Amino acid sequence: MSGAARTAICLLRCDLRTHDNQVLHWAQSNADFVIPLYCFDPRHYLGTHCYGFPKTGPHRLRFLLESVKDLRETLKKKGSTLVVRKGKPEDVVRDLITQLGSVSAVAFHEEATQEELDVEKGLCQVCSQHGVKIQTFWASTLYHRDDLPFRPIARLPDVYTHFRKAVESGAKVRPTLCMADQLKPLAPGVEEGCIPTMEDLGQKDPVTDPRTAFPCSGGETQALTRLQYYFWDTNLVASYKETRNGLVGMDYSTKFAPWLALGCISPRYIYEQIRKYEKERTANQSTYWVLFELLWRDYFRFVALKYGKRIFSLRGLQSKEVPWKKDLQLFDCWKEGKTGVPFVDANMRELAATGFMSNRGRQNVASFLTKDLGLDWRMGAEWFEYLLVDYDVCSNYGNWLYSAGIGNDPRDNRKFNMIKQGLDYDGNGDYIRLWVPELQGIKGADIHTPWALNSAALSQAGVTLGETYPQPVVTAPEWSRHINQGPVSTGKAGMGLV
Ligand code: FAD
């Protein structure tokens, strides 16, 4: 070794993995001592921007803690560890630089949204004050930002299909990076630090609901196990396009989202595994469709780069300076799954109990909130931010804007019909029966519209509207077309009663 030993701090944020990790990869060949660092930033545990829900709810916090523990164990097996601190990354990094006196570089992956960019700005200031080099990388997407056929990013198309076609024909996915078996050691004198508990961060361990579609734990190890299962052990990936709109269970979709959100799995690794699967087993519309969906994820990240802060503040027709009391009451019904519209309620209750909701469910409850209840889309976005185990700032806000009709949706005023959707995707009502047990006595598709049943049918099912289950807080005229359309239809009180 010539000259002074070089020490690199690798600040890990939403990249909690060792495979395809450019920050760790770079440090491995550019430093003698490497400090992989994770900070529990107190700002992540404050209230959401407009409506003040806890920013990180119990399901995601548990998943995060598991991911941090898993990364520490994996790094330990490679001769390193994960240094953990509670504090703002800017302050923690400053303290480490001062303590060690000889840090040569601070490396991190770049993010796309305001709060994360503010952290990056703070880190740059700290480093410039101490004469420490900053090394940054872009790695959260399938396609690298610099490989996009739109430059500058302001030229990103506002329609997803235009983006997808241009990227698919004009860009390549970069190969994943290999990580050494043995990593560079920590700098001497650096304490590993304790991983906080749920309680330390203001949450209680959530009770695991036996109905959950998401029984897996956080971390790279579990993420890779899930991919192995979904692709290689079961071939589920080969029927993804047919099953992806499911509602019940673990296997109708990949469930990669929570791991992707924390960076426990690399999208480029998923891409390579798809290509391998296509070569060795089968290539069909389903294998392509996983990439199609991952491109949506990319798209919303690039939209965030293009529009900056505006993705949080764009106002819909329904946005008000201060919500009215009636709006807050309707919002309470929505978030508690007590709207009286069973398909909405089932989805909202699943979210609260497990931190997960299917993509089909999300599209419906978002449309219901904004288009049927006429509420501010940011209420829904912040509720999701609090509860989703796979909350990802760009995917969440991008999808909510899209659902509210003020984002990147070329179709004007796309409104979902709750009853049609319920019948199309939960024809016999089994999903509703799982999450809204007080309606279990209603047979078949009638469960979607309890208000349309006559009193004899309701009483036979043990349901009293307004007592055991709410009257619908709203109904839409277009629903009535579907009320007698389900597979089983008995005891109807007639159309358009409410
Ligand atoms: P799969 O169907 O298996 O899809 C594979 C992967 O593709 C997903 O893991 C995800 O990374 C990506 N993907 C799929 N659909 C979308 C989409 N519409 N937008 C962006 N990426 C997509 N996804 C999040 O990861 N975090 C969020 O905070 C989030 N909030 C949402 C809010 C609303 C209102 C809506 C309508 C959708 C939201 N989504 C979000 C997108 C989507 O619902 C989830 O990614 C998906 O349900 C996760 O399950 P899965 O991993 O099994 O997905």
TrEMBL record:
<feature type="domain" description="Photolyase/cryptochrome alpha/beta">
    <location>
        <begin position="6"/>
        <end position="142"/>
    </location>
</feature>
<dbReference type="GO" id="GO:0003904">
    <property type="term" value="F:deoxyribodipyrimidine photo-lyase activity"/>
</dbReference>
<feature type="site" description="Electron transfer via tryptophanyl radical">
    <location>
        <position position="324"/>
    </location>
</feature>
<dbReference type="InterPro" id="IPR014133">
    <property type="entry name" value="Cry_DASH"/>
</dbReference>
<dbReference type="InterPro" id="IPR005101">
    <property type="entry name" value="Cryptochr/Photolyase_FAD-bd"/>
</dbReference>
<dbReference type="Pfam" id="PF00875">
    <property type="entry name" value="DNA_photolyase"/>
</dbReference>
<dbReference type="GO" id="GO:0000719">
    <property type="term" value="P:photoreactive repair"/>
</dbReference>
<dbReference type="GO" id="GO:0071949">
    <property type="term" value="F:FAD binding"/>
</dbReference>
<dbReference type="InterPro" id="IPR002081">
    <property type="entry name" value="Cryptochrome/DNA_photolyase_1"/>
</dbReference>
<keyword id="KW-0157">Chromophore</keyword>
<feature type="binding site">
    <location>
        <begin position="390"/>
        <end position="392"/>
    </location>
    <ligand>
        <name>FAD</name>
    </ligand>
</feature>
<protein>
    <recommendedName>
        <fullName>Cryptochrome DASH</fullName>
    </recommendedName>
</protein>
<dbReference type="InterPro" id="IPR014729">
    <property type="entry name" value="Rossmann-like_a/b/a_fold"/>
</dbReference>
<comment type="function">
    <text>May have a photoreceptor function.</text>
</comment>
<comment type="similarity">
    <text>Belongs to the DNA photolyase class-1 family.</text>
</comment>
<dbReference type="Pfam" id="PF03441">
    <property type="entry name" value="FAD_binding_7"/>
</dbReference>
<feature type="binding site">
    <location>
        <position position="240"/>
    </location>
    <ligand>
        <name>FAD</name>
    </ligand>
</feature>
<dbReference type="InterPro" id="IPR006050">
    <property type="entry name" value="DNA_photolyase_N"/>
</dbReference>
<feature type="site" description="Electron transfer via tryptophanyl radical">
    <location>
        <position position="377"/>
    </location>
</feature>
<dbReference type="InterPro" id="IPR036155">
    <property type="entry name" value="Crypto/Photolyase_N_sf"/>
</dbReference>
<feature type="site" description="Electron transfer via tryptophanyl radical">
    <location>
        <position position="400"/>
    </location>
</feature>
<keyword id="KW-0285">Flavoprotein</keyword>
<dbReference type="GO" id="GO:0003684">
    <property type="term" value="F:damaged DNA binding"/>
</dbReference>
<keyword id="KW-0274">FAD</keyword>
<dbReference type="InterPro" id="IPR036134">
    <property type="entry name" value="Crypto/Photolyase_FAD-like_sf"/>
</dbReference>
